[in-house]
Amino acid sequence: MSETYDVVVAGSGAAGLTAALAAATSGARTLVIESAAEIGGTSALGGGRVWLPANGTPENAGDSEELANRYLDQIFDTRYEAMIRTFVREARVMAAFVEKHSPHRFVVCPNYPDYHQDRAGATRGGRCFDVAPVDLRELVPEARAVRQPPGYSPITHAEWEKWRYPDRMDRELLADRMAQGIRTGGLGLVAALLDGVVRAGATVRTSTALLGVLTADGGAVTGVRVRDGDGERIIRASSVVLATGAFDATDELRHRLLPAGLGVSASAPSDTGIALTVAGDLGLPVDNLSEGWWMPMARPEGDLVDGLPYPRGLVRERGVPRQIVVNRQGRRFVDEAAPYNEFGKAMHRLEPGDEAYLIFDEGFRERYPLPGLTPDGPLPGHIVTADSLATLARRIGVDPDGLAATVERWNGFCAEGADHDFQRGANAYDDYYGDPWQEGNRCLGPIDRAPYYAMRVYSGVIGSKGGPVTDPAGRTLTREGPPLPGLYAVGNAAAFWTRDGYPGPGATLAVGMTFGYLAGLHAATR
């Protein structure tokens, strides 16, 4: 059967759906194809927060495009200055567009700090936005096909700030939400965007993998080659948006292109790098292949996505008291509460073959959360325990003397109220993730109550940053310089011009959605 569309969007994450929403509401005949059986890609597996500088809300008072640009110029790759300026100018425009054309509502997080508090232009809050709860019963039926991450709970960020720890959670409220179909986080964001896309007239197909992009002799896009349950076929289109996600779900690409020692990926298993294949087929330049959005991770047993083991990021757990992270010599090597991207860089600096372990005590277990661990239930297989630090060290292959000395020094810092080695708790970001009910330094607490515990911490990535180079409209550039007519790349499928930077919570989605919006508008009107 021959099919023709104006715009084909490959990928159903937040960047792709925003592109499809922009194209469909502009009147373009739009098709979204997703290689997986479920919708949402990596976006649905994440927190769903979006970083929007200079957004004009009262909570963001005092911010400006000038301040945001100054901040980002210190973090992102200034070779791509036009991309930075475009993002800062258009991010809030994208947000207003999404709210106009979908049921998604952005909820400002007034207390969530930017990640680099020592940089000019950083704010203590107001740039990050959470997802307002959405009711799947009120959305199009396709919204029920959005993937759900392991351990999912429909909690809002404001509720997390209020409750924080397991004994304070309103579990009855969360259970009622799950039963009623009310969703938050990345799942809620994707479901709301999908509702807008379908109501705008776009067609969405799952289990339909992009195999290649077709071009005419003159270079312009003419369609795509796909594979679905009926085999391979051609779909004609004058514009194609690559929103297929990162490449790090493919072991070979991750090991070959990303830093040595990188252990695990939290990208959706469908993020296999097809955008790189397309770029290679068409002779397009690529960039930033060695960079990613870094995240330390745990690997709880039984957590699966698409039938494959799936890790969990360690964000909030590293800021609370009564825990440290050490290498195999038993030594700390980083401020444990640092932003996860910076923590990931520190892990890349470990010696080849080294490992990292989160060390904590019974006081931590009783109060603070950790993936797969309960205060008094059976101990999961990824957690090791012992009645003494020396025995614990031997069980995990860490130097016992080194660990003993490190814990003794750490406990001394806790008594003083200051970490003299890595200054944990001495900035607004660290403090945000500390224990708000603890006086003094919220991030410090001794490790002195047996039994003691250890959990392997893996160097992980929540999305690679390499792909085809684009202009501010999302158009893929050729080696000669001009764009290839009709081909766009957005989100982690594109060359992220962010270098190794991560400015604040939700920056990944913010950049992907903003340039998805711009690409969708351009694709619909070319």
Automatic annotation (TrEMBL):
UniProt keyword Protease present: no
Domain FAD-dependent oxidoreductase 2 FAD-binding, first and last residues per copy: 6-509
Keyword Flavoprotein (UniProt): yes
Cofactor: FAD
Organism from which the protein derives: Nonomuraea monospora
Superkingdom of the source species: Bacteria
Keywords: FAD, Flavoprotein, Oxidoreductase
Protein's name in the database: FAD-dependent oxidoreductase
InterPro entries: FAD-dep_OxRdtase_2_FAD-bd (IPR003953), FAD-oxidoreductase_2 (IPR050315), FAD/NAD-bd_sf (IPR036188), Succ_DH/fumarate_Rdtase_cat_sf (IPR027477)
Pfam families: FAD_binding_2 (PF00890)
Gene3D superfamilies to which the protein is assigned, alphabetical: FAD/NAD(P)-binding domain (3.50.50.60), Succinate dehydrogenase/fumarate reductase flavoprotein, catalytic domain (3.90.700.10)
Coiled coil spans: none
